[in-house]
Amino acid sequence: MQIYTRLTGRPKRIVGIAILLVLAILLLRPGGPVTRWITPAYIGWQERRGVDRMWDRPEGADSEDGVPTRTVGESIFDSSEHPDLSELPGVVGGLFLPDSGLALVERGEIHMVDLSSGRTRVIGRKGEGPEEFGHISRANHAPQGMLVWDVPRRRVLLIAPSGEFLSSQGFRPVPFQNVFTSRPVGVRPDGRVVFRDGPGSFGRFGEGRVWDPAWYVAVDDNGVLQPVADAKGEEMYYGPEQSDAVVFGHRTFEAATKDRLIVADTDRGAIAVLDWSGREVAEIPIPTGTVLSAAQMWAGRQLRVSQVQQLMERARRAAASGQLPSMAGGEDHAEVAKAYSDWPTNDVAPAIDTLLTDFDARLWVREYRLPDQDSVTWRVWDIDEAQPLFAVRMNGDDRVLDARGDLLLRRRVDQLDVPRAEVRRLTGVPE
Fold this sequence. Notes:
about 425 residues; 8-stranded mixed β-sheet; about 15% helix
């Protein structure tokens, strides 16, 4: 979640812009102490900002539009049952690899797993060396194997399925508009990494309800940016005292394959499939959003209040330990609740809230989950043909990491909030 406060008039303390500037400085400094807690918090909030809507249908039944629904079946692999993987403190990604390989990506190392033999090994570790990581925030499929984003070092690493480090490219000097939130999306056939960028000054495009746009740019070896595509970005509200995203606001999501960039503006009604020059080659339809009741809109605001208060608590703990200035997180919880009591809220929720592409270059689209829903529905598409393949319904707290054939890799959190990764087989194969 992005929460920004304008410092106009009397000082405002609801997660102020000064705090974010401090976080940015510390986050972009390799080894900065704040990286131990703020990056996973920020990423987790991005994941929870939208929650999915689902069709109301029984498990295993065909969906309303006739697309077969598959179910999550037998377990093939569970990291919690593996002696070398029983504790994975921070699973940020997971990828199927050729043959029987599997990569489980943590913040400071990558676990390579052979599903057929059960053997595991670790590549990389926390550190400043050429084959070490400052803090991994994401890992995607790339033509060569894996693309890994090391946030504090602003570095993209390409790693072969064997675990060999193929290349490392730093992007610290690149003139992104927003150095704090720019992130890699994929790799073009010519080797250039494509990033999502955005405005560098929050509220740059006006006050009130505005859009912070998303820009996709390819970066060459000299750090020169080549525009690829534009998108609407984030639906924000910039007020005289504090600023934040609109509750149930629209967003832009993206994913990539070897040949395609997929961009979804949630208010458009269709997902754009682009080639790497930015030319649209196909569209994938998305359903209309859900009309929200007054109770659901209230619940959305309450969820936002809870998220802000959690960030404030983290800021207070960081201030107490000397990781942030003592001014951090000074706002009273009641004041936060009051500030969000009439926050701009859409009365129709977006239709989707997550995109990802899997090992087989299929597109997985998660329908928007409302705060009171426990289950979610993922729809899986053939990208180039723009044809639906099947739908999968699962627990809303589970995070899909990857899929290959009828195997699903997902991240789950147990009752003690310990994450684990598991591979399960999808049943009900479409004929």
